[in-house]
Design brief:
The chain is of the alpha+beta class and 278 residues long. The chain has 2 domains: 136 residues, Aminopeptidase (3-Layer(aba) Sandwich); 123 residues, Aminopeptidase (3-Layer(aba) Sandwich), CATH 3.40.630. The chain contains 6 helices and 12 strands. It has a 12-stranded mixed sheet with strand order 1-2-3-4-5-12-6-11-10-9-8-7, sandwiched between helices. Strand 8 and strand 9 form a beta hairpin.
């Protein structure tokens, strides 16, 4: 197929035009759901005035995936400015959709090129990554893999077997720390405190078939001291005492400390999605 030069428009806010063109594209999306976040720009590709492709993205801090400080599927968003990146590198995760009739014509490459140019001017130390379906893994869009996002699962029976191991109670009953729960209609936030100061936290969301665990965070100075494992173990013990549903979470494969923590309390990998650096 021959290449086509598209007109690339950037939308910093959701205008009526952007909304209408987005909805027109989604009629042919085959179930694909790109990010649609008003906090970040959206790029649309046009051929003769017709919307044929879209690129959207989210920015998260890679620091949140350091040992015992993981922020899972809902990483806190960067502000998108240089001054927002004082603590380390950032990552922009792209979602891209091109209408079937316009694939193979470099539309996706043109969207990526424009978005990357803008990001490099506005955000320091920000790499760009994208997930690709298996059919595109050998395409020119796929560079070296950046990491895999692992989907981990833990059932009640397996966790109860873990709780019988002799070293567990020393972790659960870690001296000097208390667990508190803040609950809303569909979620709970668990915190671990020492001398009245919050030192760790995580969040649970409840769905009909599973409980989602995410946003595990431990204060930087207290990481690698077992507090993350203490909080996770206490939370799982509480959850499984009330529900038989499995607990699931997502974590980056490059976060060795977090992966080891979850595997040590019984989680198994059930799926993975590869991310590629652009």
């Amino acid at each position: 197929m021959s290449d086509i030069t598209a007109e690339i428009k950037r939308y910093d806010s959701v205008t009526e035009e952007a909304k209408a063109d987005f909805e027109a594209l989604m009629k042919e999306s085959e179930g694909y759901e790109p990010y649609f976040d008003t906090g970040h720009p959206m790029y649309m590709a046009y051929i003769d005035g017709e919307p044929v492709g879209i690129l959207t993205y989210l920015v998260t801090s890679e620091n949140e995936t350091e040992p015992d400080g993981v922020d899972h599927t809902d990483g806190s968003e960067a502000e998108g400015k240089k001054e927002a990146n004082r603590s380390g590198s950032l990552e922009a995760e792209f979602t891209i959709f091109v209408k079937p009739a316009y694939r193979g014509k470099t539309i996706a490459k043109q969207l990526i090129k424009q978005a990357k140019e803008d990001i490099s001017k506005e955000i320091e130390n920000c790499r760009t990554v994208v997930t690709l379906p298996e059919a595109l893994l050998r395409s020119s869009l796929a560079a070296a893999p950046a990491y895999a996002e692992l989907l981990l699962r833990l059932g009640k029976e397996r966790f109860q077997a873990f709780m019988k191991s002799p070293q567990v109670q020393d972790v659960v009953d870690k001296a000097g720390v208390e667990t508190e729960v803040k609950q809303s209609d569909d979620s709970k936030v668990y915190t671990l405190s020492s001398d009245g100061k919050e030192i760790a936290s995580l969040k649970l969301d409840f769905e009909p078939n599973a409980t989602n665990l995410y946003r595990l965070f431990v204060e930087l100075a207290l990481r690698n001291k077992g507090f993350g494992t203490t909080l996770v173990t206490r939370v799982l013990n509480d959850v499984f005492s009330k529900k038989d549903l499995p607990v699931i979470l997502n974590v980056k494969s490059t976060n060795d400390a977090a992966v080891n923590l979850y595997e040590n309390v019984g989680f198994d990998e059930i799926d993975r999605v590869w991310y590629f650096e652009l």
